[in-house]
Design a protein that fits this description.
- By secondary structure, the chain is an alpha/beta fold.
- Helices cover 39% and strands 16% of the residues.
- The chain has three domains: 1-27, no CATH class; 31-192, Rossmann fold (3-Layer(aba) Sandwich); 211-443, NAD(P)-binding Rossmann-like Domain (Rossmann fold, 3-Layer(aba) Sandwich), CATH 3.40.50.720.
- It has helices at 4-8, 12-21, 52-64, 96-105, 128-147, 168-178, 220-231, 245-254, 269-281, 304-326, 346-349, 355-376, 393-396, 400-408, 418-429, and strands at 43-47, 69-70, 79-85, 109-119, 153-159, 189-192, 211-215, 235-240, 258-261, 286-289, 338-342, 381-387, 440-443.
- Helix 3 links the parallel strand 1 (43-47) and strand 2.
- The protein is globular.
- Bound molecules: nicotinamide-adenine-dinucleotide.
- Residues 215-216, 218-222, 240-241, 244, 263-265, 290-293, 313, 342, 344, 387, 389-390, 392-395 line the site of nicotinamide-adenine-dinucleotide (NAD).
Length: 451
């Protein structure tokens, strides 16, 4: 549910009042619904001269997706999206024409519009001017995203290790950023490498035939993840503690999946998950480590149980489960496993009263990066999603004033919905995203805290 302030400033008398008083007016974000158009209007594709070949290839793909694609900024359109391709720019002075062309249409970017950059990262050995223009895109995109209004977002694809602009994982990422699935992802640059991935036969069911496990699925973000993975075609094993059995059964029934009552801190949690997935569904392809707890205290007041329980559930359980899954079958492990772990912006920027939680979530980012090459060698991936402020039971316990500040301190001026986190996870878990490995994708509305 959209929060009551956002609802008020978008309806009736209170909308007019908020406008007159100059109050922040967060937009009601457009979320994915099967059958809705991919973008809310035509797509403008611009590039610097050297990147024209990549821009042509991407424009051709967008046309194939049924979009109205234009190559010149004109006054007659209400733009649904702008794609800025700077993959081959080799000097900062190369990009001004393309960047200013983007600027010339921003006043006519439709509400819920999208700006997506496509670039390459600065790397060791680059000439200084090449590194300058490549890194420049980062600061440009993050700044531009803060200027966009009315639910519009800006995100970037960073092609690593020579990945082609129209490689399957780059295209899957582009589609995610253009679509309403990325409603609460803003100001993010996602590295995408080469892979042997293939695009899905049906973009509305990219997880068809896959079996996924979601921990902490009884409520909140976990329940939304289970629903979203099932909507995208996966069979879902829903895991939660026995005490949450009712909610767990509700989620499992709603998604046509199975329920596994299990405390993720159990010594044999990974083995039991694998056994359940294989006996009930015949295979295991996706693991979403979502179960998590808060025990907020200033470190000066922290009791051992408060520190230890957070580390046990949020971090040590993920490590143990991964070790059991990757070491299963005498060491061969589950091949091609897609692992997505819940981190948090608190693990990136830090948060007062959350030394235990911040440690656990930064630890998740650490093990994700270390696990990525191990699973990547077999065609799998390990990624993390770092939500900002998401409207759930967990955050409804935060005192009102703190909660209100946390909501508004992002470019989208509102908290996200559980489904926003779920959409990012469904994207990262999809076979086409195999080129995204070892990454942390923030789902935070470009929270002003941290990067
Ligand atoms: P929630 O408290 O609403 O749900 C968490 C679920 O995990 C519950 O169903 C709970 O029973 C289950 N769980 C807890 N310990 C477990 C255990 N030992 N074994 C199995 N299941 C267990 O939380 P949420 O807000 O939906 O958060 C989900 C995840 O997202 C967590 O990892 C959290 O840290 C992360 N996150 C949430 C936010 C937010 O704003 N809500 C922000 C950043 C990160």
């Amino acid at each position: 549910m959209t929060d009551s302030y956002t609802r008020a400033v978008n309806t009736g008398f209170t909308k007019t009042l908020a406008k007159k008083l100059g109050l922040p007016r967060p937009a009601v974000l457009r979320r994915f619904r099967a059958g809705d158009p991919l973008t809310v209007g035509p797509v403008l594709v611009v590039s610097d001269d050297a990147s024209r070949g990549d821009a042509d290839a991407l424009a051709t793909t967008l046309l194939g997706w049924g979009l109205d694609v234009r190559r010149e900024p004109t006054d007659d359109a209400r733009w649904g999206a702008v794609l800025l391709v700077l993959t081959e720019a080799s000097h900062p002075t190369d990009v001004s024409g393309a960047v200013l062309a983007v600027g010339s249409v921003l006043r006519r970017l439709a509400p819920q519009g999208r700006v997506v950059t496509v670039s390459r990262p600065a790397a060791d050995g680059d000439a200084p001017e090449v590194a300058a223009v490549r890194n420049g895109v980062d600061g440009f995109l993050r700044s531009l995203a803060k200027e966009l209004r009315a639910g519009a977002t800006g995100n970037g694809i960073v092609l690593t290790d020579g990945a082609a602009a129209d490689s399957p994982s780059a295209l899957a990422t582009l589609r995610f950023f253009l679509s309403a699935r990325s409603a609460y992802v803003d100001g993010q640059l996602l590295p995408v490498g080469p892979s042997t991935a293939e695009l899905p036969a049906d973009w509305d069911r990219p997880l068809a035939g896959r079996v996924a496990v979601v921990t902490g699925a009884a409520r909140g973000i976990g329940a939304a993840i289970a629903r979203t993975l099932a909507r995208d075609g996966a069979q879902v094993v829903c895991v939660d503690v026995p005490a949450a059995g009712e909610g767990l059964a509700r989620t499992a029934n709603a998604v046509g999946g199975t329920a596994l009552q299990l405390d993720v801190t159990a010594e044999d949690a990974g083995t039991r998950i694998l056994e359940h997935a294989r006996t009930r569904h015949g295979r295991l392809d996706i693991v979403v480590h979502n179960a998590g707890i808060l025990r907020d205290k200033l470190l000066a007041n922290m009791k051992p149980a408060q520190w230890d329980s957070v580390i046990a559930v949020n971090l040590a359980a993920q490590l143990r489960i991964n070790a059991q899954l990757l070491g299963a079958d005498g060491g061969a492990g589950v091949p091609g496993l897609h692992i997505v772990s819940l981190a948090s912006t608190s693990g990136i920027a830090g948060n007062k009263g959350q030394t235990n939680y911040g440690f656990s979530k930064a630890g998740v980012i650490g093990h994700t990066r270390a696990t990525a090459p191990l699973v990547g060698a077999q065609g799998g991936t390990a990624n993390a999603v770092a939500p900002g402020f998401i409207e759930t039971d967990m955050t409804s316990s935060i005192p009102f004033a703190t909660r209100e500040v946390a909501r508004r301190l992002s470019s989208l001026q509102q908290g996200g919905q559980p489904v926003d986190v779920a959409e990012a996870i469904a994207f990262l878990a999809s076979p086409a995203a195999a080129g995204v490995n070892g990454q942390v994708l923030r789902v935070c509305g470009q929270n002003l805290v941290g990067r």
